[in-house]
Amino acid sequence: MADPKGFLTTPREEWPRRPADERVRDWDEVYVPGALLPIVGRQADRCMDCGVPFCHEACPLGNLIPEWNDLVSRSDWRAASERLHATNNFPEFTGRLCPAPCEAGCVLAINQPAVTIENVECAIADRAWEEGFVPPLPPERLSGRAVAVIGSGPAGLAAAQQLTRAGHTVAVYERDDRIGGLLRYGIPAFKMEKRHLERRVGQMRAEGTRFRTSTAVGRDVDAAALRARYDAVVIATGATAWRELTVPGRELTGVHQAMEYLPLANRVCEGDLERSPLSAAGRHVVVVGGGDTGADCLGTAVRERAASVTQLDIYARPGAERDEQAEPWPTYPRLYRLSAAHEEARDLRSAPAADADARLFAASTLRFTGDE
C-alpha cells in the first residue's frame, strides 16, 4: 500500500454519473467521461492488503485484487494491467457490468464502505487500452489442432481467446449477425458502449481467432459434422431460454419478454432499425421483475420516452444496511441499491404511483388484463 492508513483517511468515492436529465437523451454510458482516473488512485489506496483477502474468494474469477490495487495506488498501470489480465480476459466488461460480489467480501466492508474494486478494475482496463498495454498476442507456433466454440458471449469469447493464444486454430460460431451474444443485443449501450466489445473482437481477429456469424449449429451446420471437423468443441451457448410467467392473460398483445424487447432497442443503436417495433414511446409500461434485467428494461423505456414506467419487485424493500443475522459478511447481501436506471426514474418521476424510484416492492403478478 502506498498509504497504509488510506482506509482510515480516505472516504469511498464512486465514479460520478452524468445528470439524469442529460443522459436519458442519449444511449452513451451513464458515467462522466474522464472523471474516474483522478480519484481511482486514492480509492485503490483504501485497500488494506489483507492477510486473507476475502475479495479473492468472492470474485468468481479469483481476481488478484489487492495486488492490482497496490499497483494502481503506485501509478504502475502496466503492471496493474498484467495482474488484472492474468485472471480476466475482458476487465472492461466486468468493470462495467459485474454486480461486484468482491466488494461485499471486502474486509473493509465489515464496518466501513468497501473499496471501489469494480471502479478500479474498469480504470485499469481503460488505461491499458489508452496506453497500448494490451496488444494482440498471437501464438508463437500452432499446435495443429482445431477447436470450434459455439456461442460468442463473454464465456465463448474468453475460451476462444485462451485457446487461440495456446496455439490452436479456433472458430467461433454465432447464430446472430454480430459477435457478442448478450453483450451485443442484451446489455443496453448506456451500461456498456459497444465500442468496448468491437475493440476486443478486433484484438481477437488479430490474434487469429475466426468468427462465423449468422450460423446456428443444428440448423446451418450439422453438429456431428462440426464434431468430425474439429478436434474439440466448446459449447458456450448461454441460457437463452427465458423464464415464463404462467398467469392468466400472458398471451395478450403488449406482453413481451425482456429478451424480445432489449435486442430490438440495441438494433436501433446499431443502426439496423430506425425505430423499435416494441418501442415504449408514449406508452405506460410495467416491468415485471426487480433484477438487473428489469432495470435494463426500465432505463431503455425511459430513453424511448415512455409515458410512465413502473417496475414490480416481488420482494419487500430491503434495508440500506446488511442484516448481520440473515446475511453475515462476507455473503452478498440484499440491499436497497439505486442503479442508474432507478436514479433516472426517480429524478424524472417516471412512475408517480411507485414506492420509490419506479419500483413497487412486495408486488406479485397475479394476472394480465386487457381486450386484445
Automatic annotation (TrEMBL):
Pfam families: Fer4_20 (PF14691), Pyr_redox_2 (PF07992). Gene3D superfamilies: 3.90.660.10, Alpha-helical ferredoxin (1.10.1060.10), FAD/NAD(P)-binding domain (3.50.50.60). InterPro entries: 4Fe4S_Fe-S-bd, DPD_II, FAD/NAD-bd_sf, FAD/NAD-binding_dom, Glut_synth_ssu1, Glutamate_Synthase, Helical_ferredxn. It comes from the Bacteria. One of its GO terms (molecular function) is oxidoreductase activity, acting on the CH-NH2 group of donors, NAD or NADP as acceptor. SUPFAM superfamilies: alpha-helical ferredoxin (SSF46548), Nucleotide-binding domain (SSF51971). Residues 38-69 form the 4Fe-4S ferredoxin-type domain. GO terms for biological process: glutamate biosynthetic process. Keywords: Amino-acid biosynthesis, Glutamate biosynthesis, Iron, Iron-sulfur, Metal-binding, Oxidoreductase. Pathway: Amino-acid biosynthesis. This is Glutamate synthase subunit beta. It comes from Streptomyces rubrogriseus.
